[in-house]
Design a protein that fits this description.
Layout lengths: L2 E4 L9 H4 L3 H6 L7 E5 L1 H9 L4 E7 L7 H5 L4 E5 L1 H8 L7 E6 L6 H5 L4 E5 L5 H13 L4 E4 L9 H6 L9 E3 L9 H9 L3 E5 L6 E2 L3 H5 L3 E5 L8 H6 L2 E4 L11 H11 L4
Parallel strand pairs: 1-4, 3-4, 6-7, 6-11, 7-8, 9-11, 9-12, 10-12
Antiparallel strand pairs: 2-5, 3-5
Helix pairs in contact: 7-12
Length: 273
């Protein structure tokens, strides 16, 4: 049976997870492996539940209580509810489709576990914009990436906005971090990928780059596609350490694509055949 609780005190500590904790505090409020994240909208929450993520509590507009199958799927966790205006005052924004869910963070697999059997993986170097991270995960899910690796300086794929922009596909594509400290990337991380049998392809503009249409890329049995941060792109020592430097041909004087758009092009063109 759902445990429906009317919100009467916006300062109640059990609501902190939805209103007053930063993303960093959500990750680390207990032991790191017991951190939480926020999933937003029934579709996104449903995909998280399908993937086995554990719900902790729900925050939901009163009008969405009846007929909401998410409640039944979440068991007897607390369901905090009030009118839309009250919840907007609490969170500081209007709830997408009227519902938020606090969920337990999963234990991340090792790089070796994640890459076992993978033919195509994406590596995100230092990408910090949550919108871009979410969009890249959505493209990775749609365009046949087997896994995503995020470097130590990359933003969190489970940030609320990243999860929402990904439309929950962040729960469908296996991912983990490649290294814990900034010093773990690029040299140690690239060496780890190469030891696992991957050729590495740096998406960057340089004089010695090859076209994304180069048949050698499609022919690689295992390929890691490395994408760089907004603005500056990949670090020069990352590019130097990769097996290929790959460019997407541009026209009309355009110098480059946004990293999320570039990821979609790269994932499709470099997919395993």
């Amino acid at each position: 049976m759902p445990n429906i609780i009317e919100v009467s005190d916006l300062a109640a500590p059990e609501l902190d997870v939805f209103a007053r904790l930063t993303e960093a505090q959500l990750r680390n409020r207990l032991e790191a492996e017991k951190g939480v994240f926020i999933a937003e909208s029934p579709k996104v929450i449903g995909r998280a539940l399908d993937a086995g993520y554990e719900p902790v509590s729900l925050l939901m507009e009163r009008k969405h209580i009846d007929g909401q199958d998410i409640i039944a799927r979440c068991g007897d966790i607390p369901v905090y509810t009030a009118d839309r205006e009250v919840l907007a005052d609490l969170t500081g924004y209007a709830l997408t489709r009227g519902v938020l869910c606090a969920m337990r963070r999963p234990s991340l697999p090792s790089v070796e576990e994640l890459c076992a059997g993978a033919r195509r993986v994406a590596v995100l170097e230092g990408i910090v914009d949550s919108t871009n991270i979410g969009a890249i995960f959505r493209s990775a899910a749609a365009l046949r990436m087997d896994a995503v690796l995020v470097t130590p300086t990359c933003g969190d794929p489970l940030y609320r906005r990243a999860v929402r922009v990904s439309m929950g596909t962040v729960f469908q594509v296996p991912w983990t971090r490649i290294g814990d400290q900034p010093s773990d990337w690029p040299e140690p991380g690239l060496e780890q990928l190469q030891a696992l049998g991957f050729k590495t392809a740096a998406m960057a503009l340089s004089d010695d780059s090859v076209s994304i249409e180069d048949p050698r890329l499609a022919a690689e049995e295992r390929l890691a596609i490395v994408l760089g941060t907004e603005g500056d792109g990949l670090a020069q020592h990352t590019i130097a350490g990769c097996d290929y430097t790959v460019r997407i041909p541009m026209s009309h004087g355009v110098d480059s694509l946004n990293v999320a758009a570039a990821s979609a092009v790269a994932f499709w063109e470099l997919r395993a055949r």
